[in-house]
Amino acid sequence: MNIWKGFKRSSAPESGRNVIQLTDGKETCYPLYYFISTITADGRFLVYHRAKADEVQIHVLDLVSGESRRLTHASAPKTQWIPWCVESGKGVLDHRSVLDTKANCLIYFDDNKVRRVNLDGTDDQILFSMADDRIAIGQNCMTGNGEWFVYIHHDREQFAKMVELGCWKHRYLSKGTTLAAFNMRTGEHRALINMNSPIHHVLPCEEEGLIFCHPATENGMLLTDIRGGWYTHMRTQDEFGGCVCHYVPTRRGIAYEVLGRKNGEVLSGLYNPKTHQRYEFSLPTEFGYTHTGRDPEGLLWFYENEVKGMHDLRFLARHSCAEEDQWIRLTGNWPTYGGGQKSHFHPQLTPDRKWILMTGGDAATETNHLFLLDIADLNNTYGIPEV
Hints:
The chain has 387 residues and is mostly beta strands. Helix content is 3%, strand content 42%. It has one helix spanning 156-165; strands at residues 8-11, 18-21, 28-31, 45-51, 55-62, 68-70, 90-91, 98-100, 105-110, 113-118, 125-129, 134-136, 141-142, 148-155, 177-183, 189-195, 201-205, 209-213, 222-225, 232-233, 243-250, 253-259, 267-271, 278-282, 289-292, 301-307, 310-318, 326-329, 348-349, 355-362, 367-374. It has a 5-stranded antiparallel beta sheet, with no helix packed on it. Strands 3, 4, 5, 6 and 7 form a 5-stranded mixed beta sheet that branches. The two termini are 32 Å apart.
């Protein structure tokens, strides 16, 4: 990656690693979502949210020139991703946009209008419109082959009732969720799965596979494909109450963490969706709320760790069944501001594998911004077996 020299340089707290601040200002900036691509395949453009108190829109940053441009002009009146994020006023539906890295375009929701726009700002058009009684409720994706846009929608009236009652605790009242797909080449539309449970994320798994979550009765990963009409559970709740929370498809399998165990133990794991074999190991005892970092190759294992509002980023250098694991602390505590998904690091590897893109707090403005953390010196994690 050729990174503009005019970006602000600094050092990460405690570790002293080189840091580049990509965005600044009084608005909070954060990626599309850390489970999916937010940087183009050539490493040049970063697509991200910029949120004011009353509006959120998508911008694109040229990492070579440092130029940032507003990409969307959406006017949806209620953009909040319920219940996972804080209110953002009007604009694009928060956290639901998708970067098509094959065509270098953005797909975004302007309320019920699903639009696409090229990253140079041209050809902003409506792909299709959802019915007025439907609402997009989840984080969406492209299939691995770049052919299908896959998205989640729900009965609008029923979803409003769930929100009024407290939507997480009343997920069992959900009716009429659809996992749908739109073919970017032919315009074909498919309903893949219909179920009475909210779906929070859908992610690509290899060329045509899809992983989604979480069924109403528990956290967990479910597997289907672009043909639809079926799904199967993968890693489900264990005897100690532990459930998969965040998961990241990689070339080696699905990397994930298990939270909520009765003894407080946090697990990390790798799951093979073809064989349904898995490997799991314990994370350090001081780990709290954990996000597994995104490396599409599955070779670098790093985690955001949050305990009582304190965030840090750690890298697993060496794993061993017989000896103590070796960890490198990539940052000390790095405060963030605000709440919801806007306040998480959501760490992901850049295409050149030399940096971790993350959302961190900027003390000067008390808002969150996008940073690159230098990891060019790190070798691949040793000791995670194949499954």
